[in-house]
């Protein structure tokens, strides 16, 4: 059987590895188990050797059939044996894994035992600490309540008691730097001290007097959170915040009231702050603040004065009344004089600021007068106006108290509007007229008169005036040269002594208008080249003294009968009727360009004289 098995395996190996053979036919039968079969093969003949493979094949088939029969007959035993083998193998593998897990868990068991021992020691230590804590419970409770007690003292204003508690906690924190409870207590007390510092600084930002300032600074010094220079700086910062809060509460929509409130605030409170600073920080023996604080107070005060002047410079142009400018100037001078007691006299810095404000206000008013004149001139209808039925001088004397505008100007609405504007400008100038601006303001007046002159020349060049319109325009130009111009100069002379001379010496500026008076007027209806309009009897020039109004041939005033119009009025009314302007009566109504009816003889025209202050 063994030989057959060996031969069968040998034939199988030959058939599987035939492709790898290099042609060698020698069988690997060198083993000891094959020696009997090899010896038997050597004794066979050639024929038998040829039959040997077939015999081996037959024996192999027989053996295979026997094995199959045995397997079929005993398959249950084989299956049971295999299952038993598999079960045993699985159990052995499970045993192996459990053993390995046990080996791995042995260190954990060891460490767990160690940890248990250590935790047991810790529990014992904690138990001892708890026993100690219970024994000192009241003392610890008093210590832990220190932050709350400090907070209560701070809220009630008991700052000295709060600082005493802080000093006690600081002392015990230095004695026991390794105790967490004490260090935590010190941290809470430090936060409470920060709250105390904030509250003290907030008090410095309120309206407090010198004694309260002294107490607050003393508390801040005791806390020791600021150095001396830092404490001075904090004091000035807080007081500045208080001043800023007062200014922020003022209503900036009313510029005049805001500036009055600002000046009053600086006059009183800035003076108090400087005195408080000197009283609290007066540690320098030389008596000089610059030597003791490096000029801190001086710099701060100059900053406040600079802000004051900057606010004036920004907001003064918004004031449109000369009286308000004068009042603010008086308040500022009084404030500067009061602050001069502490070395903050800034009166020398005020004139340039107010001079600019006055110049801007006057220039604006003169520009408005010129613009109104231009508007009225462009919309004016050249219709004869009745002569004014009362006497008034055409020229105002600088030394005279009477500054009533010449009523003759009401016959010329554009000039009346312009003179009203100039009078308003002079009224706003007179309460606050700086002498240093005398020449500059005179130039502004001349500039306004020159603008009117140029408007008249330009109007004459651009408009085609016919007949009576040209005569009326020439009359307006003559009134501008002989009445409006001298009156403006006289008004300026009321604001500045001899100020009218600065304007009258610029008479050559109006030569263009004067030339219009020498040009013959154009007339298409045969009327004389110029209509002599006599204002309340006419204007006669005399070599001895300017313009003198007479009553000859003009208006006879009677006590019993009122006003009688004669000669010149009748001639003027007759000439106007012939040209189709006046149809009947001596007092017609003149319709303007806008369609509104304007009553003659100054019914809707009023010239405002400059007020006397």
Descriptive key words:
mainly alpha, elongated, single chain, 21 helices, 613 residues
Overall strand count: 6
Strand order of the largest sheet: 1-2
Unreliably modeled segments: 1-26, 284-291, 389-396, 520-613
3D shape: elongated
The portion of residues forming beta strands comes to: under 5%
How far apart are the termini? Answer: 158 Å
Which structural category do the helix and sheet elements fall into? mainly alpha
Mean pLDDT: 76
Number of helices: 21
N-to-C SSE series?
HHHHHHHHHHHHHHHHHHHHEEEEHEE
Rg, nearest Å: 62 Å
* Quaternary structure annotation: single chain
Helix content: 55-70%
Main sheet: strands, sense, barrel: 2 strands, antiparallel
Task: Walk me through what this model shows.
The chain is mainly α and 613 residues long. It has 21 helices and six strands. The chain has helices spanning 2-16, 35-42, 46-73, 75-135, 137-144, 146-155, 159-175, 180-204, 210-223, 228-249, 255-280, 289-293, 296-315, 322-339, 350-379, 413-429, 438-462, 468-495, 499-504, 511-518, 568-578; strands at 539-542, 546-549, 555-558, 562-565, 590-591, 597-598. Strands 1-2 form a two-stranded antiparallel ribbon. Strands 3-4 form a two-stranded antiparallel sheet. Strand 5 and strand 6 (597-598) form a beta hairpin. It starts with a helix and ends in a 15-residue tail after the last strand. Residues 1-26, 284-291, 389-396 and 520-613 have low confidence and may be disordered.
């Amino acid at each position: 059987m063994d030989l057959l098995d060996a031969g069968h395996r040998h034939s199988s190996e030959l058939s599987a590895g035939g492709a790898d053979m290099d042609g060698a036919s020698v069988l690997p039968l060198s083993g000891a188990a094959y020696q009997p079969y090899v010896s038997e093969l050597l004794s066979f003949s050639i024929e038998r050797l040829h039959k040997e493979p077939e015999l081996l094949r037959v024996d192999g088939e027989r053996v295979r059939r026997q094995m199959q029969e045995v397997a079929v007959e005993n398959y249950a035993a084989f299956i049971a044996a295999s299952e038993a083998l598999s079960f045993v193998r699985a159990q052995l593998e499970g045993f192996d894994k459990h053993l390995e897990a046990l080996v791995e868990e042995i260190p954990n068991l060891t460490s767990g035992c160690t940890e248990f021992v250590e935790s047991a020691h810790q529990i014992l230590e904690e138990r001892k600490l708890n026993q100690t804590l219970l024994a000192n419970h009241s003392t610890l409770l008093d210590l832990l309540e220190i932050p709350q007690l400090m907070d209560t003292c701070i809220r009630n204003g008991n700052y000295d008691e709060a600082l005493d508690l802080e000093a006690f906690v600081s002392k015990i924190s230095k004695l026991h730097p390794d105790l967490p409870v004490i260090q935590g207590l010190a941290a809470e007390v430090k936060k409470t001290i920060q709250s105390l510092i904030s509250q003290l600084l907030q008090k410095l930002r309120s309206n407090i007097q010198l004694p309260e300032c002294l107490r607050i600074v003393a508390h801040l010094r005791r806390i020791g959170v600021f150095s001396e220079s830092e404490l001075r700086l904090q004091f000035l910062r807080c007081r500045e915040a208080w001043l800023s809060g007062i200014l922020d509460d003022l209503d900036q929509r009313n510029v005049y009231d805001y500036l009055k409130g600002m000046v009053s605030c600086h006059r009183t409170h800035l003076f108090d702050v400087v005195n408080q600073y000197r009283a609290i920080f007066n540690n320098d023996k030389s008596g000089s603040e610059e030597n003791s604080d490096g000029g801190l107070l001086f710099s701060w005060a100059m900053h406040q004065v600079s802000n004051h002047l900057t606010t004036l410079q920004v907001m003064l142009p918004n004031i449109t009344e000369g009286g308000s400018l004068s009042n603010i100037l008086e308040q500022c001078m009084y404030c500067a004089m009061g602050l001069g007691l502490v070395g903050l006299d800034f009166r020398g810095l005020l004139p340039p600021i107010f001079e600019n404000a006055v110049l801007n206000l006057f220039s604006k008013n003169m520009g408005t007068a010129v613009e109104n004149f231009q508007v009225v001139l462009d919309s004016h209808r050249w219709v004869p106006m009745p002569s004014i039925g009362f006497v008034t001088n055409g020229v105002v004397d600088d030394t005279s108290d009477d500054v009533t505008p010449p009523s003759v100007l009401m016959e010329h609405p554009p000039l009346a509007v312009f003179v009203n504007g100039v009078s308003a400008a002079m009224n706003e100038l007179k309460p606050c007229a700086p002498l240093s601006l005398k020449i500059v303001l005179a130039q502004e007046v001349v500039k306004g008169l020159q603008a009117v002159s140029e408007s008249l020349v330009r109007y004459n060049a651009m408009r085609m005036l016919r007949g009576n319109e040209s005569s009326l325009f020439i009359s307006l130009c003559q009134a501008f040269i002989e009445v409006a111009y001298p009156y403006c100069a006289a008004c300026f002379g009321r604001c500045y002594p001899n100020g009218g001379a600065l304007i009258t010496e610029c008479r050559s500026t109006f030569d263009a208008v004067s030339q219009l008076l020498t040009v013959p007027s154009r007339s298409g209806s045969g009327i004389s080249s110029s209509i002599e309009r006599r204002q309340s009897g006419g204007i006669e020039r005399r070599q001895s003294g300017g313009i003198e109004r007479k009553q000859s041939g003009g208006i006879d005033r009677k006590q019993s009968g009122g006003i009688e119009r004669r000669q010149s009025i009748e001639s003027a009314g007759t000439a106007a009727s012939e040209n189709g302007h006046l149809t009947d009566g001596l007092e017609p109504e003149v319709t303007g360009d806008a369609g509104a009816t304007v009553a003659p003889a100054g019914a809707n025209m009023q010239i405002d004289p400059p007020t006397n202050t």
